[in-house]
Amino acid sequence: RKEVEQDPGPFNVPEGATVAFNCTYSNSASQSFFWYRQDCRKEPKLLMSVYSSGNEDGRFTAQLNRASQYISLLIRDSKLSDSATYLCVVNSYSSASKIIFGSGTRLSIRP
Amino acid sequence: GAVVSQHPSWVICKSGTSVKIECRSLDFQATTMFWYRQFPKQSLMLMATSNEGSKATYEQGVEKDKFLINHASLTLSTLTVTSAHPEDSSFYICSASSSEAYNEQFFGPGTRLTVL
After folding, report:
1. How large is the average pLDDT for residues A39-44?
2. Which residue, among B10, B6, B11, has the nearest Cα to B34 in the 3D structure?
3. What digits encode the pLDDT tens for the residues B58-91?
């Protein structure tokens, strides 16, 4: 089983739709969680951190469920510019800090 | 936000040659730098973690003698792919974090390596 798993997609949704992705992680000792966005052939860029209480940044909402070991990302009123691959990132502070990237979920917004 | 640069942005080389990739933090001191590799349509795979002034910690399956990492200063880390072969062709990305913001990594723009 992969340490961090994501649905690869692609998710193809119309502009203005609401879309949600989930990401599951296997290490219960994981302590930090992030969503990154990666455009084609570019480096990943931090979209938002994920806090235990859930957090919102404009149209984006991230949530963490420690009991079920998953994090989610919700995008409301999607824009064409939201088309990208969204990477779930988990950081485990065990004996050595371990940063694991999920394989990414591809999102395509159509006009 | 913090800026990380990489050089070169792309390189084409013959099989058997060595290639050096530089990663620089331009406006902050990077106590830790990470090197990733990304094959087409796959996620980033962490290759190694390096702390300034100490030996890099390599992930399982990554040959330390083939991928030489030097983190000699708080603003520069280098990755040298020795005796490169076509299967080493990939997108190599570095990231850096500071002691004040260890949780956040700032990524370089990546280096696309093609080995003929």
Report:
1. 86
2. B6
3. 998 999 999 999 988 889 999 999 999 999 999 9
**B52 band by pLDDT with thresholds 50, 70 and 90:** confident
Q: Does A103 touch chain B (CB under 8 A)?
A: yes
- Who's near B55: CB < 8 A, 6+ residues apart? none
Which residue in this structure is represented by tokens 């502070």?
A93
Which of A96, A100, A109 shows the shortest CA–CA distance to A36? A100
pLDDT at B26 exceeding the cut of 60: yes
The answer to whether the beta carbons of residues B96 and B32 sit under 8 Å apart is: yes
Instruction: Residue A23: list chain B partners with CB under 8 A.
Output: none
Q: What is the DSSP string of B18-52?
A: -EEEEEEESSS--SEEEEEEE-TTS--EEEEEEET
Closest residue in chain B to residue A42, using alpha carbons only? B109
Q: Residue A103 and residue B45: Cβ atoms within 8 Å?
A: no
Inspect the interface and report whether the beta carbons of A44 and B45 lie closer than 8 Å.
Answer: no
Flag whether residue B109 sits within 8 Å of chain A, measured between CB atoms.
yes
Residues 6+ apart with CB under 8 A from A52: A64, A66
pLDDT at res. A13: 95
pLDDT beyond 60 at A102:
yes
- Asked if A32 reaches chain B (Cβ–Cβ under 8 Å), the answer is yes
